[in-house]
Write a structure and sequence with these properties.
six-stranded antiparallel beta sheet; 10 strands; globular; alpha+beta
């Protein structure tokens, strides 16, 4: 499960999704590339010499539409083939471009044959110079989970885990139930609905997400804003921003940890990383503890580019903090499409009913096998 406009036809047809995707994403040609740095193993610091426009009240003006489709194929963790390199070679980029051209040819054929949706409901823009989102640890890979968190992760339940039997809504994750993709997962690129819009008003920044999320972030001036007291939590946490020069720094705590009613502080939270982002562990069952903290830094490095950097720390779950960095590209022609997913959708009940029916004594062996192996099949 895991979404509203699910390509597997759970809530809308694949053809409808494909048509919408084609409209708002555009060509899959490779994004423009800068020259390869002299040393592919060194990550340079974020540029800070660009002077962005100012709002009427004097803050750097980040307002606009910043979809992240052009990094949707960039994995969080670095594939082994790139070794210790943060950047790809020119030859590797050329190979990606050839693949993009093959995809584009196939997409055009689908449109001509009126079969759009058979393979063109996901649009990836290849050609990123980077090898992974992770810049720290320098390995480009996520650090290991703690033994306790790893055990919780492996015991977790969602529609993506193998051999899951569904008896109640608690057997589904928050994304299955159309509540939240989790945090900071909601800020990372996905297969579709990757729109991000920034609004600003005196004392506030709002980050509007095309898929399940609205972040209203007060801007602290001194100590006039503080985080919520525990145990108050939210799916996207409690975010407070401040300006460091032209960089917007957002600190988020109080991220939902689980089921407070049962005191199971790791169950059914929104996973901090969503498996539909490339290079992320499977299953959407990574736990979140009450020590989780996210620090984001948004720096406009040119008229149409924001460098987004995010550091995640949860010492009860990961053995070390980790930092991601990638660019947002302005596209004011990008249209947001309805993410037609809502909590209580009929499909959750259907999964439960089918799973229970498959385990009845009179169920056939085939039905029982299907009920026991439904998870992870999407």
């Amino acid at each position: 499960m895991g979404c509203s406009t699910r390509a597997r036809g759970m809530f809308t047809s694949a053809a409808t999704i494909a048509a919408a995707t084609a409209l708002f994403i555009g060509s899959s040609a490779a994004v423009a590339q800068s020259a390869a740095p002299a040393d592919l193993t060194v990550m340079p610091p974020v540029k800070t010499d660009y002077q962005p426009k100012k709002t009427a009240w004097g803050d750097p003006d980040l307002r606009g539409t910043w979809p992240v489709n052009d990094v949707a194929e960039l994995p969080v963790s670095r594939p082994d083939q790139y070794g210790n390199r943060f950047f790809k070679t020119d030859e590797e980029l050329a190979a990606e471009q050839r693949r993009n051209e093959q995809l584009e040819t196939g997409y055009k054929k689908e449109e001509q044959e009126e079969k759009i949706g058979n393979g063109h409901w996901i649009e990836y823009l290849g050609g990123s110079r980077r090898t992974s989102m992770v810049i720290d640890p320098p390995s480009g890979k996520l650090p290991a989970m703690t033994p306790q968190a790893d055990a919780i992760y492996r015991a977790g339940r969602s529609s993506w885990t193998p051999n899951t039997k569904y008896d109640w809504v608690t057997d589904f994750d928050s994304w299955d139930r159309c509540v939240s993709r989790g945090f900071p997962a909601s800020m990372l690129p996905f297969r579709y609905n990757n729109g991000i819009r920034i609004f600003q008003a005196p004392g506030y920044v709002v980050i509007h997400l095309e898929m399940l999320g609205e972040r209203i972030i007060p801007i602290a001036r001194g100590n006039d804003v503080s985080h919520w007291p525990k145990p108050v939590e939210a799916w996207l946490g409690n975010s407070i921003g401040h300006w460091e020069g032209n960089t917007l720094v957002i600190e988020t705590t109080n991220i939902k940890t689980g089921d407070s009613a049962t005191k199971d502080m790791y169950a059914r939270n929104g996973s901090p990383l969503n498996m539909a982002t490339r290079g992320v562990p499977s299953w959407n069952t990574i736990p979140t503890s009450d020590k989780a903290k996210v620090t984001e830094r948004l720096t406009q490095v040119g008229p149409d580019t924001i460098t987004y950097e995010m550091t995640y720390s949860d010492p009860e779950v990961f053995t070390a903090p980790w930092t991601l960095r990638y660019d947002w590209t302005r596209d004011e022609s990008y249209d947001f499409f309805e993410y037609a997913c809502h909590e209580g959708d009929v499909q959750v009940r259907n999964y439960i009913t089918a799973s229970r029916a498959g385990r009845l004594p009179e169920a056939s062996a085939e039905d029982r096998a299907a009920a026991g192996e439904a998870g992870g099949s999407r």
